């Protein structure tokens, strides 16, 4: 297969010089990549380096900051703000779980049961995006208002008793409690769960359901043994697309929560934009990145899905 | 096959293509005479498409030159070569309608008024009423004809066809084969046609080159290739052959060999070059050239015919013919196709039979080759 | 549980989720017709169309809106051009450092926004850059780029490379091939990427908030008003954007449907 040495078939096959691709052509991809990659290197990768350096600096605004390899900043940040870290993981994790529980039925409905309404439902899922998310988040202040219909209904259904015992609500208030923050997070990132779920469900060949039913699987068994495993890529990318932004969010905690519901995003924002303690802010930001990366890596290992993009 | 090189020949000299350590095409010389319908036939991965793409300029040859007439076009990019291609699965531009697809080449060369030429082309391929349709609105056969029209309108020196009928169902394939042949006769342009379908190649082409593993195994007119294959690959890939291992006993105007205790004769000019007494030889015969006689009638077989005995192992009824598989001392699974004219009811599995045929239809092959080369296998049924 | 409910349980659950998703938009719409008593527009008082008659009646609101639109337009242009180039390089060419480039595209999409926002601010502070329109634009192009790459890549990957070969075979040079064949066929992917970039840029708050200095975009205006008092005009703008977008989608659907029908009748 690999040699051309034996039998040049006919006369005149004396091999001329081997041709090479022109150098200009080989450079084309690099020219195409250059501006965009440069942009990302300078405005995404380089800032990470600057931030890493800032996190080990000491000094003050007046005298300026210098790199002193002051690693204790990290321990101090953890010591002072570990409750906010814990809350971040709790709120973002709960919101992700809720997104999955709420999003799966809707994605399933659109993929398999919607018929000719499929496009309408998809538009309804995406359309809210067109109103600024801050305005929509503020609307939850109205929906969850004290003494409003929603709170009244939750109270009548004794939901507030349960959440109250969990420490998620206080008395008959929902606004300015952890529940309100989780509710806002769930709402804001729900479409990021539904769309990948829908994409992976929609790819499933309908005949697989029929084959499972034909092979003595009940509807529930069909779902557990066929539909759910085949939709796992959607579940994995959906949970990541929800959890990662939720863990860095500070808008919901700020608008719907109270001083007791601050997440790590709020702390970073405050340190950077109000307190102006840049080393602590940079260290917190790095810690958040590390926590997210570790959580995500462990999760991907567990879920065993490699192809995410 | 070309004694007088005229202006429109396609000549490949020493052309080859390697990708890293893999050689797709070994150094190859090929001349396609002007105005001929030339087929490159082979299984997938044999290098036929690569060869075609080197003629089109879509692939740069590693070595060698491509000549159109007397002009060396090896270093010309595809858009500067007077060559056009009908691509596999057609590659019609989805964003343009049929008219604009066909006009594409003319417009790129700065032709202003294309209307008349496009209309003529649409007539030639019988698609006059589809000018404003988008490709996805056409059937497979119609798309195929648009692809042909889009290439032919440029009056190329050579039209290259890369598996042009591969995406069509069997009936449509047969019709399009005749259609393409008609168009070729009408326009008189050289066609170079790549296919893995041996029937297609033999139906359409004046000359067929059989390729295998980056080399041309044999080249010639279809009947010539079929009746006188030079390698086991050609013998098996082009139709079906019975190949019987034999020992040569005598070499003269005829070669005489023995196999399974019987004697087989064949003309010496239908044997590969070095045949000597005592050497080995593969004796080949096509299944339809064999006549089957029940052992009881063996005496009625005229003398001078090659014969070998056996027992029917299996029969299958095809309609126009019946196919028999016969096991005997000369070989197992020998194939015999008998026309269903006067069927002998005694020819059932288990029956003792004699196979006989005209020595002139026999061919000899070098015994050092793989007997199974080119035969269809279960995995890669071609 | 009656059989009917059991069989349609998933439909009911899905529709409930849909209500959860769309309820805030309904509230925004309804409260755009409210006349609140105080500075905040959270409780219903009386019907009034005043805000619709005078959407720019609040100081700075329309200026912020204009700034956001301008930013989104430029960011879309920049991200689309750069992202499309990268997508073509990734799909069409083999080159070294491909894995590194892929990682560089993927990372910004998998990073909490606040981390990117904070680190970019660190860079600008260190360089002594003046925060404002340009720093925000740089940031927007940066985070929109990856999404454009993904959208365009999907389309270009699905494109038959033989189409370009066919064009070259039919006497189109490299430039002609790109303009006449590649670009028209890749256009839907590029358009999708551009739309996504526009939406992301227009609605971005976190990164903008960190890097805007004294410039105020529309999301920043809303954020500020949550502290100072929410004018009804915010709801008017939100509802109007929603209506325009939905109308555009419906119109697009109708157009394609009609064109399809027209083609079938042909």
| Number of H- or I-type helical stretches of chain A | 13
What is the H/E order of chain A?
HEEHHHHHHHHHHHH
Question: Major sheet of chain A: size, sense and barrel closure?
Answer: 2 strands, antiparallel
Largest interface: A-C, 80 and 84 residues
* CA-based shape of chain A: globular
Helix percent of chain A reads: over 70%
Order of helices and strands of chain C: HHEEHHHHHHHHHH
> How does the overall form of chain C come out from the CA principal axes?
globular
CATH superfamily of the domain at 58-217 in chain C: MetI-like
Gyration radius from CA atoms of chain C, angstroms: 23 Å
The biggest beta sheet of chain C, please? 2 strands, antiparallel
Strand order of the largest sheet of chain C: 1-2
The CATH homologous superfamily name of chain A equals MetI-like
Structure summary, number of beta strands of chain A: 2
List the total number of helices of chain C: 12
Structural class of chain C: mainly alpha
List the domain count of chain A as a whole number: 1
Protein structure class of chain A: mainly alpha
Q: What percentage of amino acids of chain C are in beta strands? A: under 5%
> Do you know the CATH architecture of chain A?
Orthogonal Bundle
What is the chains' assembly state? Answer: heterotrimer
Family (chain B): Belongs to the ABC transporter superfamily. Spermidine/putrescine importer (TC 3.A.1.11.1) family.
Catalytic activity (chain B): ATP + H2O + polyamine-[polyamine-binding protein]Side 1 = ADP + phosphate + polyamineSide 2 + [polyamine-binding protein]Side 1
Organism (chain B): Streptomyces roseolilacinus
GO molecular function, one term (chain B): ATP binding
């Amino acid at each position: 297969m690999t040699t051309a040495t034996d039998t040049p078939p006919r006369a005149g096959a004396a091999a001329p010089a081997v041709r090479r691709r022109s150098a200009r052509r080989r450079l084309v991809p690099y020219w195409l990549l250059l501006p965009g990659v440069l942009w990302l290197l300078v405005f995404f990768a380089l800032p990470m380096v600057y931030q890493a350096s800032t996190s080990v600096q000491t000094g003050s605004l007046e005298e300026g900051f210098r790199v002193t390899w002051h690693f204790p900043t990290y321990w101090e940040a953890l010591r002072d703000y570990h409750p906010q870290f814990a809350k971040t993981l709790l709120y973002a994790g709960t919101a992700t779980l809720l997104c999955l529980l709420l999003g799966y039925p809707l994605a399933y409905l659109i993929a398999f049961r919607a018929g000719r309404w499929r496009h309408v439902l998809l538009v309804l899922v995406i359309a809210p995006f067109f109103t600024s998310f801050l305005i929509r988040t503020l609307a939850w202040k109205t929906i969850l208002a004290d003494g409003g219909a929603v709170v009244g209904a939750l109270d009548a259904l004794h939901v507030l008793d349960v959440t109250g015992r969990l420490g998620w609500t206080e008395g008959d208030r929902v606004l300015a409690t952890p529940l309100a923050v989780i509710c806002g997070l769930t709402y804001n990132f729900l479409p990021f769960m539904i769309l990948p779920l829908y994409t992976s469900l929609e790819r499933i060949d309908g005949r697989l359901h029929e084959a499972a039913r034909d092979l003595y699987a009940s509807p529930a068994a069909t779902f557990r043994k066929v539909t759910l495993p085949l939709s796992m890529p959607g579940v994995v990318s959906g949970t990541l697309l929800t959890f990662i932004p939720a863990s860095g969010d500070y808008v919901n905690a700020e608008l719907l929560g109270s001083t007791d519901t601050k997440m790590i995003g709020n702390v970073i924002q405050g340190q950077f934009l109000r307190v102006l303690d840049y080393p602590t802010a940079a260290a917190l930001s790095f810690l958040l990145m590390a926590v997210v990366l570790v959580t995500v890596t462990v999760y991907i290992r567990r879920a065993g899905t490699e192809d995410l993009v | 096959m070309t004694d007088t090189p005229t202006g429109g020949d396609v000549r490949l000299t020493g052309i080859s293509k390697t990708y890293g350590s893999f050689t797709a095409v070994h150094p190859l010389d090929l001349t396609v005479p002007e105005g001929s319908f030339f087929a490159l036939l082979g299984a997938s991965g044999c290098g036929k498409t690569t060869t075609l793409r080197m003629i089109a300029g879509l692939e740069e040859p590693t070595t060698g030159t491509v000549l159109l007439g007397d002009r060396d076009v090896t270093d010309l990019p595809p858009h500067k070569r007077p060559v056009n291609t009908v691509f596999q699965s057609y590659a019609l531009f989805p964003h343009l309608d049929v008219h604009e697809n066909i006009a594409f080449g003319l417009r790129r060369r700065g032709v202003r008024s294309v209307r008349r030429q496009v209309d003529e082309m649409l007539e030639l391929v019988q698609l006059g009423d589809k000018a404003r349709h988008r490709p996805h609105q056409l059937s497979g056969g119609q798309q195929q004809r648009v692809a042909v029209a889009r290439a032919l309108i440029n009056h190329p020196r050579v039209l290259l066809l890369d598996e042009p009928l591969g995406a069509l169902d069997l009936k449509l394939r047969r019709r399009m084969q005749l259609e393409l042949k008609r168009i070729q006769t009408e326009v008189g342009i050289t066609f170079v046609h790549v296919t893995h379908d041996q029937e297609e190649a033999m139906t359409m082409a004046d000359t067929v080159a059989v390729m295998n593993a980056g080399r041309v195994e044999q080249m010639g007119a279809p009947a010539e290739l079929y009746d006188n294959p030079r390698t086991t690959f050609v013998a098996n890939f082009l139709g079906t052959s019975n190949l019987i291992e034999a020992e040569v006993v005598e070499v003269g105007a005829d070669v005489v060999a023995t196999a399974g205790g019987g004697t087989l004769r064949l003309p010496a000019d239908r044997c590969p070059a070095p045949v000597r007494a005592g050497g080995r030889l593969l004796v080949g015969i096509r299944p339809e050239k064999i006549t089957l006689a029940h052992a009881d009638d063996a005496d009625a077989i005229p003398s001078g015919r090659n014969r070998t005995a056996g027992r029917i192992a299996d029969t299958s009824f095809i309609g126009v013919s019946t196919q028999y598989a016969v096991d005997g001392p000369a070989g197992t699974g020998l194939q015999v196709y008998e026309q269903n004219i006067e069927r002998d009811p005694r020819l059932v599995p288990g029956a003792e039979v004699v196979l006989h045929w005209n020595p002139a239809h026999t061919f000899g092959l070098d015994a050092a080759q793989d007997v199974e080369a080119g035969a269809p296998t279960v995995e890669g049924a071609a | 549980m009656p059989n009917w409910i059991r069989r349609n349980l998933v439909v009911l659950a899905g529709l409930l989720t849909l209500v959860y998703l769309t309820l805030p938009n309904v509230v925004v719409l309804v409260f755009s017709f409210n006349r609140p008593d105080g500075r905040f527009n959270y409780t219903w008082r009386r019907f009034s169309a005043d805000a619709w008659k005078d959407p720019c009646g609040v100081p700075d609101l329309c200026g912020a809106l204009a700034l956001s639109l301008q930013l989104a337009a430029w960011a879309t242009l920049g991200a689309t051009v750069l992202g499309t180039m990268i997508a073509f390089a990734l799909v069409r060419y083999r080159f070294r450092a491909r894995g590194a480039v892929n990682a560089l595209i993927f990372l910004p999409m998998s990073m909490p926004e606040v981390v990117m926002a904070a680190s970019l601010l660190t860079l600008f502070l260190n360089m002594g850059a003046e925060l404002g329109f340009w720093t925000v634009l740089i940031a927007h192009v940066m985070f929109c780029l990856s999404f454009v790459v993904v959208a365009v890549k999907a389309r270009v990957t699905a494109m038959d490379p033989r189409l370009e070969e066919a064009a070259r075979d039919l006497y189109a040079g490299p430039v002609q091939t790109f303009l006449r064949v590649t670009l028209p066929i890749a256009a839907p992917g590029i358009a999708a990427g551009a739309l996504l970039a526009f939406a992301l840029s227009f609605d971005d708050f976190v990164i903008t908030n960190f890097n805007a200095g004294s410039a105020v975009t529309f999301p920043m205006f809303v954020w500020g008003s949550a502290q100072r008092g929410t004018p009804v005009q915010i709801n008017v703008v939100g509802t109007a954007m929603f209506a325009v977008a939905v109308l555009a989608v419906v119109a697009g659907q109708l157009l394609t449907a009609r064109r399809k029908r027209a083609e079938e009748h042909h």
